[in-house]
Amino acid sequence: MVMLENAERFSDDTVAIYKPSAPGQHIIFLGDDIKQGEVAALKGTVVSAREIGAFSALGISYLPVVKRPKVGIISTGDELIPAGNTPIGAQIRDSNGPMLKSAVESLGGEVISYGIVKDELETLSDSVGLALAECDMLLITGGTSVGNKDAARQAIEAFGEVFIHGIAVKPGKPTLVGKAKGKPVFGLPGHPLAAYFMFEIFVRPFLLSLLGLKNTHKQIEAVLSHTIPSNNGREEYIPVKMEYADDVTAVPILSKSGLITSLLRAHGYICIPREIEGLPKGSRANVILFRS
């Protein structure tokens, strides 16, 4: 086969060929793209534009997929206002709701947001009941601490059971896990940094399992630029910034659990086991990288 641009037809139907072509060149034979019986895509493949193009070429216009789970998100707290509003007095903007919505959608979940709900048992219970009727899974942020005003546990127990309330981690100790009306419910801390890490550690792998996907992380070994103190008895998650020079260095970003902007400077995090009292400067540690 000779390409048209490498040939010329004259008036007497003579064809001049200006570039040689080997036998079989420029020809796609049956089975070159994919052979009969060959697997085109494995179970658990996330269907993107590449897969759509390949399936279309194979004549596949319909295929079985996993239903996207509907995830309800409730932000609770008397002090919360929508992110676009200007705080007055002790008010604070709701950053957890939009953050969790983005996190769920990035994994393939479908979000139903129930907005900001006052930290009152009757009001919160009404919203929890509505969410359980409409969703496959529920996230409540805030209202999980042990206190008279924190009604999340009671609202969940009105429809089901709380299995765990309080985990030996930092940040994120007041996290709760339960089931209501046969559906999983996660109560995440109101502090944004804690809410983010508890989503990563607990909610993310569970949501991926509903989608039939594996929870994988890219890790890299790095040298610590500073000593990281840690409380014995609680697993601790420390955001770090990566620096690449002669060696890979992890710079700890020490922050309070209520400050979310530390994550803007972080490329990943280090997990310090509960039986270790910190990590010394110069030691090597595995950094779990955030997904870009």
Q: Can you put this structure into words, describing what you see?
A:
- The structure is a single chain.
- This protein has 292 residues and is α/β, with parallel strands linked by helices.
- It has two domains: 70-210, 3-Layer(aba) Sandwich (Molybdenum Cofactor Biosythetic Enzyme, Chain A); 219-289, Beta Barrel (Beta-clip), CATH 2.40.340.
- The chain is 21% helix and 28% strand.
- The chain is built from five helices and 16 strands.
- A six-stranded mixed sheet has the order 6-3-7-11-10-8, with helices on both faces. A five-stranded mixed barrel has the order 12-14-13-15-16. Strands 1-2 form a two-stranded antiparallel ribbon.
- Strand 1 and strand 2 form a beta hairpin.
- Helix 2 (96-107) packs parallel to helix 5.
- The longest helix is centred in the last third of the chain and has 19 residues, at 192-210.
- The protein is extended.
- The chain starts with 6 loop residues before the first strand and ends with a strand.
- The mean pLDDT is 92.
